C-alpha cells in the first residue's frame, strides 16, 4: 500500500443538499477534467472499433450527403449557392458543422442512459457525460474540417486568415449541442420518448437550417423566423469565414445569446434532476 | 486528529412509487389530462413519502474499521450511496477528509469492446484516479491481474475470471483513504473473497478507514472493532462490535415475541367455534430468540374448541425478512383432524427440521382453518418471530464457506460423487 500522501492534506469533501447552482459545480467539473477526456476518447474508440472502415465513417456521412444534395438540389432542382462558393463546397461546409451539432446532440441525449451502469455506482459530476459525447463528435468534426480544407484548392479557394474563425464557430455549435443535450439527456432518463423523437426531429431540422440551400432563397419576411434557429447564423458565418466574406455579427450575437439561455436553463434543470438520476436509471 | 468522516443529522427521503423504471411521456400526459386538478394542486398525494435515513450522526476516526448492520431496508445502502455521493441527502451533511472508493464498484465502466489496457485507463479514471496515477500503477495493476498476454484483447473475449481479476486489480490500486465494502462477499468465488478480505485487512492495518456492510456477523466481528446498528433509518446503537452484533441478533427478530399467552392477556382471538390461547416457538439450545440453523424449530399452538361442528386444521405461515412466504404448513397429517373435535383444550405441535430455513429473521402467522367450506377461525398475523443463526462450524449446509449465501431455504442435501473417468479411478486406486 502507498502512503496516505497521495491526497493533499487539506482535502475535504462536504456532502449536503446542494443549491441549484454554485461555484462548487464548476470546481468539480474542473477536478474531473481527465475523466471528461477519457470518456470522450472511449466514445470515439468504441464507435469505430469493429467497423472495417473505422474513422472513415466520420467522413463518409457528410460526403455522401453532399453528393446526393449536389445532384438533386443543385443539378436537378437548380438551387444555387450564394456568395460565389461552388455548390459542393457550400453544401459540404454546411454539412460538416451541421453534423457536429446533430451528432453531438444525438449522442449527448442518449449519454446518461447509455452510461447508467456507471452513474448508479460512482460519483462524478454528471454533466461530464453529455459533454464527453459532444467532445467525441468534435473529433469527427476535426476530421471533416481537415477534409474540407483539403478540398479548397480543387474549388480554387485560397487559404485566408479568416478561416481561423471556423474553430470558435465550431465551438459555438458544440456548445449549442451541449446546451440542448443537457435538457434532453436529463429528460431522456425519465421519458425515453426522446430517444425515438430526436433523430426524427433532427431530420426535419436540417430542412429549416440553411445547410444545403442559402438563406437568401427564403422570402425576406420569413427570414427572421429562420434566424431564430441559432444554427442559421453559425452556418452562414462558418461559410463566410471560409471564403473571407463579412460575417453576420448581429445574428451571430443572437445565436450566442440563445445558446447561452438554453445552456443556463439546461444546466439548472440538469442539476435539479441530477439528485434523482441514481434513483431513476 | 480530526475525524476522517463526520456525519451530521443525515436524512434521505424517497417518494414511493416515484421509483422503478421510466415513464413514457404518454403516461404522464394522460395522467395530467385525466386529472388536471390534481396536477394543479401539485399531485403529491398519490406518492407516499418515506425516510430511508432519518437524523443519522456519527464520526469515524482514521484507521477505524466500522461495521454497519441492520435488517434489509434499515438504510444501510442509502447511507453508503450518500457517502459515495451517488445520491444526495435530503437534509444534513457529511464531511469526508479523504477519498472514498468502494469495492462494490469493481469493474464499473468496463467497456466490452475496449482492450484490457484501454479499460484499465477508463476504469481508473471513472474511479477517480488521475492519469499520472494510473500510469504510475499500470505495471503493478497488470502484474496483479495476471492478464499480461491479453492486454490488447477486447475484454469481451476475456473469461469471467480474467475479467474479475483485472477489475479487482484496478480497484486494489486505487489507494483511497476510505474504503467501502458492501456485501462484497456476495460476489465471486471463495478465492476472490479471501483476496477481498485480505485486502480489507491490509487497508485497515495500513491506517485507512473501512466501512463494512454485511449480513455476515462472523465477518463483521472479525474485521471491525466498532459497529453501528441501523433500524428504520436511525442509528439504534453505536458501539463495540460484539455488543452491537449481540443486540442485533437479540432484538433483530422484530417486535414479535417467541411466545404469546393470549389467554393471560385476556384477548383470545377466535370465533364461536374455536379460540387461540397461546403460541410459542422453541428450539434446542435456543438463546433469546435465536435458533441454531442445525436444530429443529418447534411451533406450538394452544387452542380451545368451543363447538363441535367443523374439522379444524391448525396452520403456520412462515415469512422471511423480505416478506416472502417461505412456506405454509397445515395439519392434515393427523387423521384426527378430518373429524370435528370435542370441546376442550388442545395443543398442536409442528417441528420445522434443522437445516431447512436459511439464516435470517422469520415471522410466523398462526391460524386455525376449516377447508370444506373454507372458514378461518383465527388468524394471527406476525404472531411470533425468531431468528435462525448459523455459527458456521462446518457441519451446516454452508460447509466451510464463510461468505453470504442467498436463498430462502438452506437444506443440507445428501450429495455424492461417483467416479466416471478411468484415469481418475487409477489415481484413486494408487
How many distinct folded domains of chain A? 1
Adjacency order of strands in the biggest sheet of chain B = 5-6-7-3-8-9
CATH architecture of the largest domain in chain B: 3-Layer(aba) Sandwich
Q: What is the beta-strand fraction of chain B?
A: 25-35%
Taking pLDDT < 50 over at least 5 consecutive residues as the criterion, the unreliable ranges of chain B are: 18-22, 38-46, 184-188
Number of strands of chain B: 18
CATH superfamily of the largest domain in chain B: P-loop containing nucleotide triphosphate hydrolases
Shape of chain A: globular
Question: In brief, what are we looking at here?
Answer:
By secondary structure, chain A is an all-alpha fold. Chain A contains 11 helices and 1 strand; from the N terminus they run E-H-H-H-H-H-H-H-H-H-H-H.
Describe this structure in words.
The complex is a heterodimer of chains A (281) and B (430). Helices cover 69% and strands 1% of the residues of chain A. Chain A is mostly helical and 281 residues long. Chain A contains eleven helices and one strand, in the order E-H-H-H-H-H-H-H-H-H-H-H. Chain A has one domain (4-280). Residues 1-6 of chain A have low confidence and may be disordered. Chain B has 430 residues and is α/β, with parallel strands linked by helices. Chain B has two domains: 5-9 and 51-251, P-loop containing nucleotide triphosphate hydrolases (Rossmann fold, 3-Layer(aba) Sandwich); 259-389, Coagulation Factor XIII, Chain A, domain 1. Chain B has eleven helices and 18 strands. Chain B has helices spanning 25-34, 36-41, 76-83, 116-126, 131-145, 160-172, 190-205, 217-223, 241-251, 262-265, 422-429, and strands at 5-16, 48-60, 65-69, 91-96, 100-102, 178-182, 209-213, 226-231, 234-240, 259-261, 274-282, 290-292, 297-305, 313-320, 325-330, 344-352, 360-370, 375-389. In chain B, the strands form four sheets. A six-stranded mixed β-sheet of chain B has the order 5-6-7-3-8-9, sandwiched between helices. A five-stranded mixed β-sheet of chain B has the order 12-18-17-14-15, with no helix packed on it. In chain B, helix 7 links the parallel strand 6 and strand 7 (209-213). The longest helix of chain B has 16 residues, at 190-205. The N and C termini of chain B lie far apart (64 Å). Mean pLDDT of chain B is 81; it is low at 18-22, 38-46 and 184-188. At the A-B interface, strand 1, helix 2, helix 5 and helix 11 of A face helix 1, helix 3, strand 4 and helix 4 of B. Strand 1 (13-15) of chain A pairs antiparallel with strand 4 of chain B, so a sheet runs across the interface.
Amino acid at each position: 500500500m502507498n502512503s496516505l500522501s497521495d491526497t493533499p492534506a487539506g482535502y475535504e469533501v462536504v456532502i449536503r443538499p446542494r443549491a441549484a447552482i454554485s461555484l462548487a459545480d464548476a470546481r468539480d467539473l474542473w477536478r474531473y477534467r481527465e475523466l471528461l477526456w477519457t470518456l470522450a476518447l472511449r466514445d470515439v474508440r468504441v464507435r469505430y472499433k469493429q467497423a472495417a472502415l473505422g474513422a472513415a465513417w466520420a467522413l463518409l456521412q457528410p460526403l455522401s450527403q453532399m453528393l446526393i444534395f449536389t445532384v438533386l438540389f443543385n443539378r436537378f432542382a437548380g438551387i444555387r449557392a450564394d456568395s460565389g462558393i461552388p455548390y459542393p463546397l457550400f453544401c459540404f461546409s454546411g454539412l460538416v458543422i451541421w453534423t457536429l451539432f446533430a451528432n453531438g446532440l444525438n449522442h449527448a441525449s442518449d449519454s446518461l442512459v447509455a452510461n447508467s451502469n456507471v452513474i448508479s455506482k460512482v460519483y462524478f459530476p454528471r454533466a461530464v457525460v453529455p459533454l464527453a459525447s459532444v467532445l467525441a463528435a468534435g473529433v469527427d468534426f476535426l476530421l471533416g474540417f481537415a477534409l474540407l480544407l483539403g478540398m479548397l484548392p480543387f474549388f480554387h479557394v485560397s487559404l485566408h486568415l479568416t478561416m481561423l474563425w471556423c474553430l470558435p464557430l465550431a465551438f459555438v455549435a458544440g456548445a449549442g449541442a451541449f446546451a440542448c443535450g443537457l435538457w434532453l439527456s436529463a429528460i431522456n432518463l425519465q421519458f425515453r420518448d426522446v430517444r425515438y423523437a430526436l433523430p426524427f426531429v433532427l431530420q426535419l431540422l436540417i430542412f429549416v437550417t440553411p445547410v444545403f440551400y442559402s438563406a437568401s432563397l427564403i422570402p425576406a419576411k420569413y427570414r427572421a423566423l429562420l434566424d431564430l434557429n441559432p444554427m442559421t447564423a453559425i452556418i452562414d458565418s462558418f461559410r463566410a469565414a471560409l471564403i473571407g466574406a463579412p460575417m453576420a455579427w448581429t445574428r451571430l450575437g443572437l445565436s450566442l445569446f440563445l445558446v447561452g439561455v438554453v445552456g443556463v436553463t439546461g444546466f439548472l434543470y440538469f442539476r435539479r434532476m441530477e439528485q434523482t438520476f441514481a434513483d431513476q436509471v | 486528529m480530526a475525524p476522517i468522516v463526520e456525519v451530521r443529522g443525515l436524512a434521505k427521503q424517497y417518494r414511493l412509487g416515484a421509483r422503478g423504471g421510466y415513464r413514457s411521456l404518454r403516461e404522464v400526459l394522460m395522467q395530467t389530462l385525466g386529472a388536471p386538478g390534481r396536477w394543479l394542486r401539485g399531485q403529491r398525494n398519490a406518492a407516499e413519502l418515506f425516510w430511508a435515513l432519518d437524523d443519522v450522526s456519527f464520526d469515524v476516526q482514521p484507521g477505524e474499521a466500522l461495521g454497519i448492520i441492520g435488517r434489509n431496508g434499515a438504510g444501510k445502502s442509502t447511507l453508503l450511496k450518500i457517502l459515495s455521493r451517488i445520491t444526495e441527502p435530503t437534509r444534513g451533511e457529511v464531511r469526508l477528509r479523504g477519498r472514498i472508493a468502494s469495492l462494490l464498484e469493481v469493474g464499473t465502466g468496463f467497456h466490452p469492446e475496449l482492450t484490457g489496457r484501454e479499460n484499465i485507463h477508463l476504469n481508473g479514471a471513472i474511479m477517480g484516479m488521475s492519469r499520472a496515477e494510473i500510469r504510475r500503477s499500470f505495471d503493478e495493476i497488470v502484474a496483479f491481474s495476471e492478464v499480461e498476454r491479453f492486454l490488447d484483447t477486447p475484454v469481451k473475449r476475456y473469461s469471467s475470471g480474467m475479467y474479475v481479476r483485472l477489475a479487482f486489480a484496478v480497484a486494489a490500486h486505487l489507494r483511497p483513504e476510505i474504503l467501502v465494502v458492501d456485501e462484497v462477499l456476495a460476489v465471486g468465488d471463495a478465492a476472490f473473497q479471501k483476496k477481498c478480505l485480505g485486502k480489507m485487512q491490509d487497508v485497515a492495518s495500513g491506517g485507512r478507514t473501512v466501512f463494512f456492510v454485511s449480513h455476515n456477523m462472523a465477518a463483521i466481528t472479525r474485521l471491525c472493532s466498532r459497529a453501528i446498528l441501523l433500524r428504520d433509518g436511525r442509528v439504534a446503537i453505536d458501539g463495540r462490535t460484539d455488543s452491537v452484533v449481540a443486540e442485533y441478533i437479540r432484538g433483530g427478530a422484530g417486535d414479535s415475541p417467541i411466545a404469546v399467552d393470549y389467554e393471560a392477556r385476556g384477548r383470545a382471538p377466535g370465533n364461536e367455534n374455536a379460540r387461540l390461547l397461546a403460541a410459542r416457538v422453541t428450539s434446542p439450545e435456543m438463546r433469546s430468540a435465536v435458533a441454531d440453523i442445525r436444530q429443529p424449530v418447534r411451533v406450538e399452538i394452544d387452542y380451545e374448541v368451543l363447538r363441535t361442528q367443523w374439522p379444524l386444521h391448525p396452520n403456520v405461515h412462515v415469512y422471511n425478512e423480505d416478506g416472502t412466504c417461505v412456506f405454509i404448513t397445515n395439519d392434515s397429517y393427523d387423521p384426527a383432524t378430518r373429524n370435528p373435535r370435542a370441546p376442550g383444550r388442545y395443543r398442536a405441535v409442528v417441528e420445522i427440521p434443522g437445516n431447512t430455513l436459511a439464516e435470517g429473521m422469520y415471522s410466523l402467522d398462526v391460524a386455525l382453518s376449516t377447508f370444506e367450506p373454507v372458514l378461518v377461525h383465527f388468524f394471527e398475523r406476525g404472531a411470533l418471530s425468531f431468528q435462525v443463526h448459523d455459527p458456521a462450524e462446518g457441519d451446516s449446509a454452508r460447509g466451510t464457506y464463510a461468505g453470504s449465501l442467498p436463498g430462502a431455504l438452506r437444506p443440507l442435501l445428501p450429495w455424492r460423487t461417483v467416479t466416471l473417468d478411468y484415469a481418475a479411478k487409477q489415481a484413486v486406486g494408487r
